[in-house]
Amino acid sequence: MVDTDKLVVNTDAQRLEWVTLLTKASDFHYDMSGLHDEDEEVADVHRAWARAIHDAVLLIDMWELEETEIVVDPRPPAERATNVTDEVDKSAWVCKLCDKSTFETDYDYLAARDMHLECALKEEMKEEKNAKSK
Ligand SMILES: [Zn+2]
Question: Is residue 52 part of a domain?
């Protein structure tokens, strides 16, 4: 099923071609209906064709010219950076034990986003020591 909202012609010239062609066809059927005055039924068929084609011309007039699709980014400019890593808040990637960045550290060496695995192990060992010394 064709989405009628999407009907487009690419150029005004193309639209004019269709309008001209169909207007001629519509005129032809009006003429034919006039030539068949004696046969009411044939005249009616031609008039119906003429009207239908005229309606088609009106539809073509309503078609929109296809324009380059403009994609609107609803985000504020500050959030539109293409490089996502630049947008990461590096302040969240700081080890709370040694205060050094965890941002460049491989996930394998992180206990958490804000804790190096090494620091976590050292802290654990320290706590164990403290527990023993008590
Ligand atoms: Zn650390």
Answer: yes
